[in-house]
Amino acid sequence: MTRVGVNGYGTIGKRVADAVAAQPDMELVGVTKASPNYGAEAAIRRGYDLYAAIDDRVDEFETAGLTPSGTLDDLLRAVDVIVDCAPSGIGARNRAIYASHDTPAIYQGGEDADVADASFNARASGDVGDADSLRVVSCNSTGLSRLLAPLDEAYGVEKARVTLVRRGGDPSETDRGPINDVVPDPATVPSHHGPDVNTVLPNVAVDTAALKAPVTAMHTHSVNVTLETEPSTATVRRLLGDETRLFLIPEVANIDGAGALKDYAADVGRPRGDLWENCVWEESISVQGRDLYLFQNVHQEADVVPENIDAIRALTTDIPREESVALTNETLGIGLDSLLADGGTVRDPVAADD
Length: 354
Ligand SMILES: NC(=O)C1=CN([C@@H]2O[C@H](COP(=O)(O)OP(=O)(O)OC[C@H]3O[C@@H](n4cnc5c(N)ncnc54)[C@H](O)[C@@H]3O)[C@@H](O)[C@H]2O)C=CC1
Ligand SMILES: O=C(OP(=O)(O)O)[C@H](O)COP(=O)(O)O
What we know:
Helices cover 33% and strands 23% of the residues. The chain is of the alpha/beta class and 354 residues long. The chain has 2 domains: 2-136 and 304-332, NAD(P)-binding Rossmann-like Domain (Rossmann fold); 139-303 and 334-353, Dihydrodipicolinate Reductase, domain 2 (2-Layer Sandwich), CATH 3.30.360.10. Helix 1 crosses helix 10. Bound molecules: 1,4-dihydronicotinamide adenine dinucleotide (NAI) and 1,3-bisphosphoglyceric acid (X15). 1,4-dihydronicotinamide adenine dinucleotide (NAI) binds next to helix 1, strand 2 and helix 5. D-glyceraldehyde 3-phosphate binds at residues 138-140, 193-194. GO terms for molecular function: glyceraldehyde-3-phosphate dehydrogenase (NAD+) (phosphorylating) activity; NAD binding; NADP binding.
């Protein structure tokens, strides 16, 4: 049983905590919060042991009636691995604390790649060897790595070009922007996403350009990949459809954007309406010569969560990657196979294309 702590119970941390608690081979020892806000109260209501992320704030928790089980140091003494889910940049500052306890650590994509011994994506990374720390690449890079790895293996990727329309902030981030604009962010090319993908897929040529839009639900990627061979549209659809962490949205489902996707996720019982899979519009997948085009959406709050679970196993056990992925998928319920997929309007043109 791997004893796990989560440092930073925010958007990512609370989801990672739930996912850890669902694993048969992991024990969630506790979670930290920096302040005794509604998130701290919710953690206690969910039955998680709450620790103060910052030593001298214990009084604040006590005053709020949320007496913590201890501080981050206490948590680190009780775990085999810590998952850092603190705000971007704080993870790098926490590194020395984890090192002082000799505690293996997993960091998130808001940190620079050199925060850890290796960057990680369950589908794309090679063996992590004897790494003592891993960094799960960002939500957008996770979405791109899951897509590009099978394409490169099957057909070879000569060059991928991706335009990312990023959500301005998460639904709870009222202070985020833009409010009424679409902003190149960064205005320079490439954005950090292509180089981030290369930390797990070093041999795949990928250029990324990014914008921010005043939406909160999901990121949208417009993808063009020049392949080294000329597969048919049908075979690419089949290849991507066989990937467990890619959900091919059937045309007949009439899901036209992030609003309907999140609605569907909630309707089928996903916790918090989370979509752990990349969501690829099946009818958008088209091959012209060696050029592949498609649109996909990425739920930024959720897609890195299963990757964190597989990163924990990669860091602390000898369980083979495929076994870990299968167990994570099974315990979380990953693999949205739409009941509509075989009866919809999309399959007919595919059959004709074969
Ligand atoms: N929100 C997103 O869309 C995604 C975020 N990430 C990355 O995940 C990491 C966490 O991001 P979010 O969950 O969005 O942040 P968040 O702001 O929602 O949550 C961070 C949590 O850390 C706590 N915290 C503050 N100071 C701390 C400290 N010194 N030590 C420990 N905890 C502290 C806060 O109380 C808060 O609960 C960042 O690296 C981010 O770039 C990665 C993928 C997607
Ligand atoms: O890791 C993320 O995005 P990224 O892949 O664009 O770096 C998360 O969506 C966090 O993005 P934010 O830095 O806008 O909060």
